[in-house]
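Students often ask why we bother encoding 3D structure as a string. The short answer is that it lets us treat folding as translation between two languages. Here is a chain of 198 residues written in the first language.
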Amino acid sequence: MMAQEEDDWRTDGDGVARRRPLREWHVEEAVEVAVPVRTAYNQWTQFKTFPRFSAVVRDVEQVRPTVTAWTIGYGLLRHRFLVEIAEQDPDAYLAWRGLEQHPTHEGEVEFRPMGPGGTAITVRMLLRPPGAAKVLSRFTAVTGLAARLVRAELVGFKHFIEGLGQEGGAWRGTIRNGRVQHDTPEPPRSRVAQWPVG
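And here it is in the second language, the structure alphabet:
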């Protein structure tokens, strides 16, 4: 891990390194949905359903437990990229980063209870467009477009989950540093096949 990346992590009292929330971002959008936090979070973790409410997500494929392949686009234009879930806390927080050769973004989504049975969902993204100054000169336009897209996706999710009224599935695992944390340790194994441990 590079020194700059180390600054993005914090160690809590339990000794577990957790990702710091983004200290800077280019896009921040929020929406309130009329379902409980657990329902909103559970549905959000069903990435394969994103094409059902998204205007830009065409397909999501689970590659590994913490890595998904996303295909986005309009019309015949398509772009496929890998995303790693860096941190995930059920009913609270999910952080990801692009795994392209030149990472173009990282982001986070927070879930907070609101009033009786509602949820506030906030998405933040840090964009890193590739290229030189000519790209940076248009960066304001890029971030404006990204903000509008994120806002539209959140509104699409709101209508989708409120229309369902309940989640269509759930993944309740915890992820730290890009690795799934198991609640129960694996039982000890014998070094000799078929021999009991003890």
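Translate back mentally: The two ends are 39 Å apart (CA to CA). Keep this in mind for the problem set.
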